[in-house]
Write a structure and sequence with these properties.
This protein is mainly beta. It is built from no helices and 21 strands. The protein has strands at 2-5, 11-24, 29-30, 33-43, 46-47, 51-60, 63-64, 68-77, 80-81, 85-94, 97-98, 102-111, 116-117, 121-130, 133-134, 138-147, 150-151, 155-164, 169-170, 174-178, 193-197. The strands form 3 sheets. It has a 12-stranded mixed sheet with strand order 1-2-4-6-8-10-12-14-16-18-20-21, with no helix packed on it.
Length: 202
């Protein structure tokens, strides 16, 4: 257990866990922040503070009452994060509620249909699929961006290809730069569409 002093004079406790497997079992509660480094990291119980996780596989099926900062080959959030999420990996999937905003980067980035962000989303990847809901705005850079969920604010994107489902909803503007113009079904974007063609390399 590592205790650090804070400017307010209070102690902030960090629990350090490492090895092949790190688990916060279902039905248990960790009252501190967690720093974990392992091949497999699973948060099935409750962490009252923040979680800093570095491993091959990082999975959250329980509850994190603080922020999640994670890096791994595969990062999956099926549980609840009440703070913000900052994650990087080959595959990053958010399939549960996040109280704050999310900053994610990966070859494949997914906001699943059950995924819901209380803030905004900043995403970068080869393939970014947004099927859930984002309360605020979205900024994305991707080879392919798929809009299939609900965004409360604006969507700003620089992509090679944009796909927009008829069931998607954008409360603000859709502003995007791409080599080809996307087909945006009527009624999807409340604030209008601003398309800017990107320069093609000869």
């Amino acid at each position: 257990l590592l205790t650090l002093g804070t400017p307010a004079g209070k102690a902030a406790a960090f629990e350090l866990r490492s090895g092949e497997v790190v688990t916060v079992p279902a039905g248990t509660t960790l009252a501190d922040d967690l720093l974990a480094g392992a091949q497999t990291i699973t948060i099935a119980g409750t962490v009252e503070g923040d979680v800093f996780a570095m491993g091959s596989t990082v999975t959250v099926t329980g509850t994190i009452n603080g922020d999640l900062i994670a890096a791994g080959q595969q990062v999956t959030i099926d549980g609840t994060v009440r703070g913000d999420v900052r994650a990087a990996g080959q595959q990053v999937a958010i399939n549960g509620p996040v109280g704050g905003s999310a900053t994610v980067g990966g070859q494949q980035v997914l906001l699943g249909r059950q995924g819901a962000l209380g803030g905004g989303l900043l995403a970068g990847g080869q393939e970014v699929n947004l099927l859930g809901s984002v309360e605020r705005g979205v900024m994305a850079g991707a080879a392919t961006l798929h809009l299939g969920g609900a965004v409360g604010g604006n969507v700003d994107a620089r992509v090679e290809r944009l796909n927009v489902d008829p069931a998607a909803r954008v409360g603000g503007q859709l502003r995007y730069t791409s080599a080809t113009q996307a087909v945006v079904p009527a009624g999807v974007v409340a604030g209008g569409v601003d398309y800017r063609p990107s320069e093609r390399l000869e």
